[in-house]
Amino acid sequence: MKTSLIKFLSAAACFALLFFFITAPASATPPAPKIPDWFESRAGFNNALEFGAIANVSCELKSLLFDITGRAECVLTDAAKPLAPLAPVHFNLKKGESASFKFPLHFDKETHSKPLAVKIFFDFPKKEMLAYVSAMNIDGEEKNALIEKIKSASDLYEITHSLDFIITKNESFSQLDKGVYDNYLKNGFLIKSFDFKNMELAAILSEIKRYEEFIATVRKTPELKTYLATGMDLVSSEDKYLNYLYAAAYHYYTAGDHSRAGFFFDALLDKAVKEAQNVDTSEIFVNAAVNKAVMLYELGKKKEFIELAEKLTDFCVKRSDARLRYIYYNIANYHRLASDIKAAETYYRRALALKPAFTACSNEIKKLEEKKQNDK
Questions:
Q1: What does pTM read for this prediction?
Q2: What residues contact 159, with CB distance under 8 A and at least 6 apart?
């Protein structure tokens, strides 16, 4: 086995070297000369997006080297409505000056993959830029190339900031990589989807069996076990194995087979996650544990639900995990359905403090406040 492993690694190294020689260019190409940075610009949402609410798209500019003039525009899709006609904002900045502009918009519909754009048009300071570059202490050939580039540049310089976002009646995201929820059940509990939606269950189970046999073989072989311990995890594919377990649990859960779903949730949470050697398991642990907690609640196992939810809370607090808001949300729903209004409101507010645009929480708080008024 040791000889086989050495041959495998040697072959891989030779292939990588051969690939380098095949793909490497015959001669190095010098980078294109870069025009010095003469301004700074930024665009984004300056408050949380929320369904049915107003939010501002902001644009910030700063002149770094010269006086600059131009205009900024906000370009909409049907994702939002302007509160007033979106006229261009003209600017005239002295060297070193800053300016900021706001475009107030009404986000009144659910939206996905319909980004906004902030376009900024500058009167390119060609004369000033040529004088600046001519005085730079750089290689003469590079300087001449840069001067020619500036001379041939358009008189109108344009940049675009694209702002993508998602808004639903439950929650919104302006940082799409931070959004982890898929859909909500009738009681508002979170269910996270998995990465193998299009695979048949039989194929998923077959992959689980294959990976379990493979990983068991790897871990029993001293040479491969040592190799895995280096962190150079090229052969174990443990991350895929974890996701296949997750997918099987999800399949059975959505099919209503809670017993089999529980088997695969436990196989993932109690064994596979703990034994994984070279992959970060925190994300799949939280997602799977949240789903298992939901299932426990639906089965009427409320004590086990609370125990798992509290364990998840501690886990996410220690790691500053953004998904803590979902756990607070589920605990709040548990208390709401148990008619403990005070506890429910406490946890909704904790979730809302972590995500101000968590509309599902703000809606529930409104309902609870209305109920308290009606009960007086």
A1: 0.68
A2: 41, 119, 120
Query: What pLDDT is recorded for position 178?
Result: 58
Give the CATH number of the domain where residue 110 resides: 2.60.40.10
Answer yes or no: is pLDDT of 2 > 50: no
| Residues 80 and 112 grouped into a single domain | yes
Q: Is there a single domain that holds both residue 99 and residue 209? A: no
Asked whether residue 245 is domain-assigned, the answer is yes
> Does one domain contain both 85 and 105?
yes
- Determine the Cα–Cα distance for residues 139 and 264; give it in Å rounded to an integer: 64
**Can you give the pLDDT at residue 150?**
93
Q: Is the pLDDT of residue 182 over 70?
A: no
Average pLDDT over residues 178-191: 59
Contact 310, 215 (CB under 8 A): no
DSSP per-residue string spanning 111-132: EES--EEEEEEEE--HHHHHHH
Q: Which of 144, 173, 202 is the last residue of a domain?
A: 173
- Write out the residue range of the structural domain in which residue 220 sits: 180-321
Q: How many domains does the structure of the chain reveal?
A: 2
Average pLDDT of 178-187?
57
Same domain, 205 and 162: no
Instruction: Name the phi and psi angles at 163, rounded to 5.
Output: -115, 105
Question: Does 281 lie in the same domain as 198?
Answer: yes
Let me know if 15 is exposed, middle or buried by CB neighbors in 10 A (0-12, 13-18, 19+): exposed
191 occurs within a structural domain: yes
Alpha carbon distance 31, 28 (integer Å): 9
Q: What is the mean pLDDT of residues 93-122?
A: 93
Number of other CB atoms surrounding residue 179 within 10 Å: 15
Instruction: Show Cβ contacts of residue 307 under 8 Å, excluding neighbours closer than 6 positions.
Output: none
58 forms beta bridges with: 44, 102
Q: How far apart are CA 291 and CA 285, in angstroms?
A: 10
Measured distance CA(145)–CA(32) in Å, rounded: 9
Let me know whether 54 and 72 are in one domain.
yes
Q: Is 65 exposed, middle or buried (0-12, 13-18, 19+ CB in 10 A)?
A: middle
Helix or strand (DSSP H, E) at 146: helix 140-152
Interval 199-205 mean pLDDT: 91
Tell me which of 271, 297, 321 is where a domain ends.
321
